[in-house]
Design a protein that fits this description.
Layout: H1 2-15, H2 19-32, H3 37-49, H4 53-66, H5 71-83, H6 87-100, H7 104-123, H8 129-133, H9 142-163, H10 167-180, H11 185-197, H12 201-214, H13 220-231, H14 235-248, H15 252-270, H16 337-343, H17 370-376, H18 425-439, H19 441-446, H20 465-473, H21 477-486, H22 492-496, H23 502-516, H24 524-531, H25 536-541, H26 545-560, H27 565-576
Helix pairs in contact: 1-2, 2-3, 3-4, 3-5, 4-5, 5-6, 6-7, 9-10, 10-11, 11-12, 11-13, 12-13, 13-14, 14-15, 21-23, 23-26, 26-27
Length: 577
């Protein structure tokens, strides 16, 4: 089972193209269980995809040794031979598959592969390089023959990548073949096709010239060079290459296509107009837009002469500030220091006083609500004197004072008289009730509710965490004791939930220590519910000294109840660790 898990993960990595990771996983599967041939064939596929053909052959041989009827091993070996250009060996592997396989699908696939390989073997002809490299002889010496065979392997790999339109990888394979054997015109011609599709026309033209230099009877480089020359506007040279291609080529279909190209080139050569091409010199980018030249007939052209724009060099001049005419006064007004202090929140200099604005907010507030009145009054600067609000018995007198700053005199500010609205008896009673509630707000927040007000509360086992917390927060100390006593056998770990706070934990410990211990009530289940809470490790760090003392007292009480030492130690480690 472990080996199968390695294989499944390796299959996923292989599908994603992570062949090195897949090889490691298949290797672990083989080390776990080495009797399965599938692990070897899967790893052989990864080796083949990263061009490690020797390792691929070794895994195929190992798989066949484990299972002589392993069709996948023969198929992997056939694929590797075909990629290396060894078509004869690949054909032999196909025959072996046809002999062993009983599956119709596998046999049909093998027959198609056999037909493809046989067609390739029939189409192979002696390369003209043999005659060039050996001065008229049709055979190379053994050393050059081995090198040529190795270079042909890279050429076959390049052909496969070229068929997949992976021009960058194909160009690398052809370059490797040329580095091994640089007298073969086919290598240069094939690489020129890669450069043509990669829009590298300089290298494409250079490879065509080299291929023609090595074998002037090879027709393919002429057509590629014709395309490059036509692209660059050299129509005469392109026409000569096209004629040479027609002369050397024996394929009637290709010759018919070339004849059409020749007619087009002849028309372009005779015509004075430029060629209508999709691009010239460089390919247009996707975000670029072609702007064509405007060719108007003579009767539509403008008769007005073109206006020549005079261009003169002007020496740099120091220009006056914007809005000030040349020769005018550039003296600026001085900014008062008070404004600068106000901008930078600096209160060390002179103060810029602002005229007061009269406010008519007094009638909105009661006579004793100075705090609200100050909140809604305009802010005062530190230089202003504290304002004294008028008494409620008389209207506010008119106040006026002179405000001087930078020779500026402020206008007199008058405030409206303050009128006390008449209060009805019902309004006064409502107001007294509100004031009474506000006065007792702080005290009611600190104290528990009076038991007399909670006698009507019916305690029941809660069904959710929210119901437990809502009930707990509305109980006084005695009712909390009764509530916990009711829940001592309930699933408290679920009721506490993730919302248990350190404050509530302290309250529970206090109730347990104060009431449960004095009344000799069992606390074991409640303590278990506390320590089983998911947040207890954090809450234990937030216990104060009083809470820790309560835990110690509860542990001593539980020890007296003959609780197991293991249970006590678990609770102690959770709360006091």
């Amino acid at each position: 089972e472990k080996a199968e898990r390695f294989k499944e993960i390796g299959n996923k990595q292989c599908k994603l193209g992570n062949y090195l990771s897949a090889i490691d996983l298949y290797t672990q599967a083989i080390e776990t269980y080495s009797a399965c041939a599938t692990y070897y064939t899967n790893r052989a596929l990864c080796y083949m995809n990263i061009d490690r053909y020797n390792d691929c052959f070794e895994d195929c041989d190992a798989a066949i040794a484990k299972d002589p009827n392993c069709i996948k091993a023969y198929y992997r070996r056939m694929q590797a031979y075909e990629r290396l250009g060894e078509n004869t060996k690949a054909k032999a592997e196909c025959r072996k598959i046809l002999e062993l396989s009983k599956d119709e699908k596998e046999m049909n696939t093998a027959k198609k592969d056999m037909a493809r390989i046989e067609k390739r073997l029939e189409g192979q002809a002696p390369s003209p390089t043999f005659a060039i490299a050996n001065n008229g002889k049709h055979e190379l010496n053994p050393t050059l023959l081995l090198i040529k065979q190795e270079a042909d392997k890279y050429k076959e790999l390049g052909n496969k990548q070229l068929a997949k339109k992976d021009y960058i990888t194909a160009e690398k394979h052809y370059t490797k073949a040329i580095s091994l054997f640089d007298n073969e015109a086919i290598y240069y011609a094939n690489r020129s096709l890669c450069y043509w599709n990669l829009k590298d026309y300089d290298k494409c033209l250079a490879d065509c010239n080299k291929a023609i230099q090595l074998d002037d009877s090879y027709f393919r480089p002429y057509y590629r060079r014709m395309q490059v020359r036509e692209l660059r506007g050299a129509y005469q040279g392109a026409l000569e290459d096209c004629r040479k291609f027609i002369e050397l080529n024996k394929d009637e279909k290709q010759k018919a296509t070339a004849e059409k190209d020749m007619l087009r080139l002849e028309r372009l050569l005779k015509s004075e107009q430029p060629a209508k091409q999709s691009f010239v010199w460089n390919e247009l980018k996707k975000n670029a837009k072609r702007i064509e030249f405007v060719q108007k007939p003579p009767h539509m052209r403008s008769r007005k002469p073109l206006k020549r724009i005079h261009i003169a060099d002007v020496p740099p001049l120091v220009q006056a500030p914007k809005g000030i005419p040349h020769g005018g006064s550039t003296k600026r007004q001085t900014i008062p220091d008070a404004i600068i202090d106000q901008m930078f929140n600096n209160n060390t200099g002179e103060r810029l006083t602002v005229p007061e604005e009269k406010t008519n907010l007094e009638h909105l507030f009661p006579a004793h609500s100075n705090k609200l009145k100050n909140m809604f009054s305009p802010p005062t600067t530190p230089s202003d004197k504290p304002k004294s609000f008028p008494s409620t018995a008389a209207p506010v007198p008119t106040i006026s004072r002179n405000l001087q700053s930078n020779d500026v005199r402020a206008a007199e500010v008058k405030t409206a008289p303050f009128v006390i609205p008449e209060m009805k008896p019902s309004d006064k009673m409502e107001k007294d009730k509100i004031n009474h509630e506000h006065q007792g707000l702080n005290e009611s927040a600190r104290k528990q509710k009076d038991p007399a007000n909670t006698t009507d509360i019916r305690l029941s086992i809660p069904k959710s965490t929210a119901q437990f917390y809502t009930t707990w927060s509305g109980l006084n100390e005695d009712l909390r004791y009764q509530y916990l006593k009711l829940l001592k056998n309930a699933p408290l770990s679920k009721l506490f939930g993730a919302s248990l706070s350190n404050q509530m934990l302290g309250e529970i410990l206090y109730i347990l220590k104060t009431h449960f211990v004095s009344n000799q009530v069992d606390v074991t289940n409640i303590m278990r519910g506390i320590v089983e809470n998911e947040c207890i490790s954090i809450l234990a760090l937030m216990l104060n000294k009083e809470d820790r003392n309560a835990v110690e007292e509860l542990l001593n009480y539980m020890q007296g109840q003959h609780l197991k030492e293991e249970e006590l130690q678990r609770i102690r480690s959770k709360l006091l660790a």
